[in-house]
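Q: Given only this backbone (201 positions), what sequence would you predict?
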């Protein structure tokens, strides 16, 4: 009788809930960054172009969408922190070299910090203006911080914007690193977040 075929080595993957949260946050970021750069500064040409393309109130719609996506990211990140604390991370089949492990851990921790700090600062910034903190056209989640234009401008221009730019740079580096694992190293790292856990390819 022929011996059964060897089953492929199965590498651990992130639990489904963590994978879904990861990809939802990534999708939100894809919308948030271009919206953020477009609405920034309330530039007259940008306002006119959006209102011409989307109808009256088009620019305000983009503003509301940016805030809604941003607050959604914050909510997803809270869930993600709970999931991460409860479930941890899967073990690596072949541990990464120590320096690479340190770099990867540092970027992941910084991404977590920025994905929470950036929306929190934006949220307090609009609340202090005071402007609505729109949440998907069903709620205004503005915080009761009282009117403080100087604080609002400082938070949005001098803190929110640099944090968001740093986040965009780190996210881009993270995506490039993930693609390198997939295309050049051909190891199982990408599979950990996609959910296909066969080691090596
Ligand atoms: C992860 C979440 C978020 C990201 C990545 C993000 C990203 C950005 C970016 C890239 C800009 C343009 C910055 C610039 O070049 O000046 C921006 C602007 C802005 N964001 Fe966010 N944002 C997030 C969450 C939020 C939230 C939750 C709010 C408010 C509820 C908000 C309110 C604003 C406002 C009002 C501006 C325009 C500021 C100005 O005109 O100077 N953002 N955001
Ligand atoms: C095409 C886009 C993306 C790909 C291919 C990707 C891929 C991956 C992979 C493979 C991992 C697991 C790494 C490991 O365990 O060693 C991971 C983890 C992670 N990714 Fe992404 N990612 C993408 C976009 C993003 C974006 C936009 C963000 C947010 C800015 C993000 C934030 C994170 C974080 C924080 C972790 C660590 C998860 C944890 O250990 O709890 N990713 N990603």
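A: Predicted residues:
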């Amino acid at each position: 009788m022929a011996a059964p075929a060897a089953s492929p080595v199965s590498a651990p993957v992130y639990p489904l809930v963590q994978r879904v949260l990861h990809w939802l946050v990534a999708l939100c970021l894809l919308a948030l960054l271009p919206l953020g750069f477009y609405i920034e500064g309330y530039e007259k040409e940008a306002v006119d172009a959006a209102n011409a393309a989307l109808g009256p109130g088009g620019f305000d719609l983009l503003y509301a969408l940016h805030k809604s996506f941003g607050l959604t990211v914050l909510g997803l990140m809270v869930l993600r922190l709970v999931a991460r604390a409860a479930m941890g991370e899967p073990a690596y089949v072949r541990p990464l070299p120590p320096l690479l492990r340190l770099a990867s851990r540092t970027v992941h921790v910084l991404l977590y910090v920025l994905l929470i700090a950036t929306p929190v600062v934006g949220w307090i910034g609009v609340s202090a203006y005071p402007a609505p903190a729109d949440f998907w056209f069903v709620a205004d989640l503005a915080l009761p911080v009282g009117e403080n234009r100087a604080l609002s401008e400082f938070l949005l221009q001098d803190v929110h914007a640099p944090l968001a730019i740093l986040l965009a740079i780190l996210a881009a580096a993270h995506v490039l690193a993930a693609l390198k694992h997939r295309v050049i190293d051909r190891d199982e790292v990408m599979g950990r977040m996609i959910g296909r856990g066969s080691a090596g390819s």
